[in-house]
Amino acid sequence: MPGKKSIKRYFVYFILLNIIVAGCYSSAEESSDVEHANIISVKDFRGKTLGFNKPAERVVCLIESALSGIYMLGAGEKVVGVPGDIYRNHLFFYYAQLDERIGNKELVSPGNWDFVSIEQVVGLESDLVIIWSSQTEAISALERFGIPVYAVMISSFEDVFKEIRDLGQILDRNGKADSLISYTRKKLQELEFKASESRIKSAYFMWAQGINETSGINSTVNELFWLAGLQNVCRLEQEHVTVSVEKIIDWNPEMIVMWNNEKLDPLDVTNNPLLQQINAVKNKMVFELPDPFLCDLWTLKFLFSVDLISQWSHQHPNQNSTDFEQIFKFFYGKSLETNEPEL
Amino acid sequence: MNRNYKIWAVFILPFPVLFGSLFIGASERVAFHDVFSILLPGNRLADPLIRTIILDIRLPRILLVFFTGGILSVSGAALQAIFRNPLVDPYILGLSSGAAFGAALGLTTAFLPVQLAAFIFGLVAVGLSHFMARKNGQVSIISLILAGIITNGIFTALLTIVQIWSDPFKLQSIVHWIMGNFQNADWDKFTLAIFPVVAGLIILFLLRWKLNVLALGDEEAASSGLNPTRLKIWILLAATLASSAAIAVSGIIGLYGLVIPHVVRMLFGVDNQRAVLYNLLIGGSFLVLIDNISRSVAGYEIPIGVFTMLIGAPFFIWLLKKSNIGWQQ
Predict the structure, then answer these.
(1) Interface residue of B56, B164, B166, B167 to substitute, partner A, most A CBs within 10 Å
(2) Mind listing the pLDDT tens digit of every residue in chain A (343 residues)?
(3) Does any CB of chain B come closer than 8 Å to the CB of residue A2?
């Protein structure tokens, strides 16, 4: 029978073993930065340099907005794996138009922004995986299997341009990437000119979770308002933040912009008794962005949102509505049916 | 069932469960015969891709799940014995909330590895409980349990702060981690967890006969020449350290360390000397089966903690109603 000393000894061994194991574990990933000359070299959003000897041909894209970018670049045929959420109803409606394989549900979805099936990705023999940079565990696992990972984190519209430029390089669509970027910048300049004439100066953004959920100054929402000639009333630094109704009343925005919301519409906000003293509610300046696919702030389609908000701030809700079809055709190379059928 | 048959069944159980689990996975490229052919000695002709999927993705996951389930069950049984309380599990000293806070910090900051942060903060939580319970050089079990509750509260509050500061993506990752999952299991994670887990198992196995004496009460233990307080602290720390190494790579798997020891007790009685091994084999095998469900029931992975809760909770209630759970059997 082990005595007291033996128990102590076992325990000391055990502690030492744990310390050794913990000490051996290092966060420093083995550097797989490119050392050899490659014909394509891009730096992803982690700051990691990826090198390719040839353009990627089998792409697993687990970010819906990046997938949208790939179709804009005309490289949809290189996609072999898609994020699971594109098979959800409203996104499926658009992607089925962009790719017959998606319409026939032939493209597998080995993951999403919250999980990745490493086994499925490895089985697809992909030469590029596009994934959010916050999915650190999945990235490490994929890189251990030697799969190049382009990690994305969109914090500004410049990041959207960078993503398109990088994907254009990796997928051998440089020309298309350049033309998409210059077209968007030109359109934004036109909108900037219009924005200076706006009478409305301040706005509050309301995410789909409810009136209390908004974005601060370090967000694409803030840029969205700025490009439309408005100031975001939420001056907090957080990208996503929950604020009290009292605070919103205090800020007293002249306009409220709602992200597409399945449960609420602008009328629900204007009828909310707590918000009656806000200028935006008094003047019925509450608007809802349409389908998230059309207004996605993490793609070049943010242009639509800027345009819409700019029009709302000028109180011309229907002006230039035909431009959308032209822009769509330019972005995707085909006319998209935008009126989703009743399900 | 005859007791001998039951014992044989428990010892044989892991083999078909572990082997059968190699056939289950998300990839459609792996055919039934591939698993057989790849495991046959001398077979070097198998497709390297299929070899990778079976040997580098499925196998480490299955083994990691087995040892995680095993150590949670063994730790749960050991702690129930020393506390003489059937409602105790390995998380009693704040391990789960400390590890969850550590993981959340790791997920929201770039410089802290998730597993290491979970492991360290799990231990910090247990150390804090021990420190708070310590008075005049002595640690009473009641003080320790109360300190564990307070530590749980502190780290849950800290976790909430991290969640509030996180963006929605990271928040989702935190929630997934808290619910437990093995989707990114590989040999690195297995290697990271296995040494502390096996070390903990060895210590608990060597002390298994003393668990029976401790379960009789402190006076009886003292009359047998043991120092019950000191022995309890050693067992407690060994179980907690080993569990923290497991949950650092798996996330929090709720109810498991509570339910499986009851199942073992129901099947084999309250003999802790044997229960250590039975808990390892049954706990490990059953978690592998649950993980098979979590990775195959839908087209995507569902956190394993969801199933341990959904299966464990009604099963536990059924056990409560059916039998006198505790030490009466």
Answers:
(1) B167
(2) 455 555 555 555 555 555 545 544 433 344 444 445 568 899 999 999 999 999 999 999 999 999 999 999 999 999 999 998 898 778 899 999 999 999 999 999 998 877 888 999 999 999 999 999 888 888 989 999 999 999 999 989 999 999 999 999 999 999 999 999 999 999 888 887 666 666 678 999 999 888 888 999 989 999 999 998 899 999 998 888 888 888 899 999 999 999 988 888 999 999 988 889 899 999 999 999 988 888 899 999 999 899 889 888 876 655 555 467 777 888 998 887 766 655 4
(3) yes
CA-to-CA dists, residue B62 to B292, B293, B311, angstroms: 9, 12, 19
Token readout for B204 is 């608990």
Distance CA B126, CA B95 (A): 6
CB B161 within 8 A of CB B206: no
Å from B172 to nearest chain A CA? 7
Q: What is d(CA B207, CA B41) in angstroms, rounded to the nearest whole number?
A: 38
Instruction: Tell me, letter by letter, the H, E, C secondary structure of A202-270.
Output: EEEEECCCCCCEECCCCCHHHHHHHHCCCEECCCCCCCCEECCHHHHHHHCCCEEEECCCCCCCHHHHH
Look up residue B18 and give its two tokens.
């572990």
Pairwise CA distance, residues B319 & A121, whole Å: 41
Nearest CA in chain B to A22: B116
Supply φ then ψ for residue A42, to 5 degrees.
-135, 155
Backbone angles phi, psi at B321, to 5 degrees: -75, -30
Name all domains of chain B by residue range, CATH numbers in brackets. Answer: 3-322 (1.10.3470.10)
Residue ranges of the alpha helices (H) in chain A?
Answer: 4-24, 64-72, 89-98, 100-103, 118-123, 136-144, 157-170, 174-195, 220-227, 245-251, 266-270, 279-282, 292-295, 302-313, 323-332
A50 DSSP 8-state letter: E
Ordered by where they begin, the domains of chain A are: 40-172 (3.40.50.1980), 191-332 (3.40.50.1980)
Residue B71's closest CA among B167, B198, B255, B236? B198
Q: Closest to B49 (Cβ–Cβ): which among A116, A122, A144? A: A122
- A3 CB burial (10 A radius; 0-12, 13-18, 19+): exposed
Could you tell me whether strands A40-43 and A108-111 are parallel, antiparallel, or unpaired per DSSP bridges?
unpaired
SS3 (DSSP) at A82:
strand
